[in-house]
């Protein structure tokens, strides 16, 4: 049975999951909720005042700020200055050429791409009905998991039964390692210290920490499939039970996982599940 290798998984999760999670755009209005870095109206907008201020500053003080300074573009897009001197989001003309196989990703169409940049660049072209769009199906293409596409084995019943324990252990070790490296967000340090001192709260605090960490775009006391991407995509190629496990956690099949569902799914008792996310954020 394949087991989580904490050292390797830690590096992947730390360098991919936690970094990506902090840089996520808001959730897309499109139906493909697993598309973490989907097109988002909020991410392809311009601060109108910035362009007006730019013109004003040019006249009054001779200083013109970068028109793209306040323009936020979604994945697959970059800001360029148009003929009017205003910043606007356009599809990335060319992605960096990748030679490292580790940069490859598998899309929701079970196709291997050289990088996530190429995936979202193509998505952008197709959403804009550009001639660069290879096929209309790419209008909703997104990264399914990191690494080359492969046949994902079926998660056996005995593996699924043992998975919550393994997942709790992994979460605690990740939280502990981040704290030791001084890389755990300050707002979660109290949870980690409490887990270290009180074995009764070891698993519960780790489970609650990860839920609070995932519930961020938006913070609404539930975790969407969109928000699960940072924990699903890096692990799927190495841990074939992660996808069916996360599906199982959504007990009422509403495409959102509540704290109660998350805790019970990971083997906590109902009296161990305490909503600490709001209090943690209030202390930021």
TrEMBL record:
InterPro entries: EF-hand-dom_pair, EF_Hand_1_Ca_BS, Follistatin/Osteonectin_EGF, Kazal_dom_sf, SPARC/Testican_Ca-bd-dom, SPARC_FS. Residues 153-265 form the SPARC/Testican calcium-binding domain. Its main location: secreted. GO terms for molecular function: calcium ion binding; collagen binding; extracellular matrix binding. Keywords: Calcium, Disulfide bond, Glycoprotein, Secreted, Signal. Residues 68-89 form the Follistatin/Osteonectin EGF domain. It is found in: Secreted. The keyword Secreted applies. It holds the Pfam family FOLN. Residues 1-21 form the signal peptide. Transmembrane segments: none annotated. GO terms for cellular component: extracellular space. Gene3D superfamilies: 3.30.60.30, EF-hand. This is SPARC.
């Amino acid at each position: 049975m394949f087991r989580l290798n904490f050292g390797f998984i830690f590096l992947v999760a730390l360098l991919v999951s936690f970094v990506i999670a902090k840089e996520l755009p808001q959730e897309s209005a499109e139906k493909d909720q697993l598309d973490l870095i989907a097109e988002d109206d909020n991410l392809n907008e311009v601060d109108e005042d910035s362009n007006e201020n730019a013109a004003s500053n040019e006249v009054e003080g001779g200083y013109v700020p970068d028109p793209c300074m306040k323009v936020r573009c979604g994945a697959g897009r970059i800001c360029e200055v148009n003929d009017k001197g205003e910043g606007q989001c356009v599809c990335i003309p060319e992605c960096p050429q990748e030679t490292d196989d580790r940069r490859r990703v598998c899309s929701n169409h079970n196709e291997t791409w050289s990088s996530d940049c190429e995936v979202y660049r193509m998505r952008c072209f197709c959403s804009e009905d550009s001639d660069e769009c290879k096929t209309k199906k790419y209008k909703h293409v997104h990264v399914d998991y990191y690494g080359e596409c492969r046949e994902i084995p079926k998660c056996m019943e005995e593996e699924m039964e043992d998975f919550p324990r393994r997942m709790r252990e992994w979460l605690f070790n990740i939280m502990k390692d981040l704290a030791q490296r001084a890389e755990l967000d300050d707002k979660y340090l109290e949870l980690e210290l409490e887990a270290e001192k009180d074995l009764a709260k070891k698993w519960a605090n780790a489970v609650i920490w990860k839920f609070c960490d995932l519930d961020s775009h938006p913070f609404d006391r539930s975790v969407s499939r969109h928000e699960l991407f940072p924990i699903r995509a890096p692990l799927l190629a190495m841990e074939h039970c992660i996808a069916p496990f996360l599906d199982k956690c959504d007990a009422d099949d509403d495409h959102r996982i509540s704290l109660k569902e998350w805790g019970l799914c990971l083997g906590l008792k109902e009296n161990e599940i305490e909503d600490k996310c709001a209090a943690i954020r209030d202390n930021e």
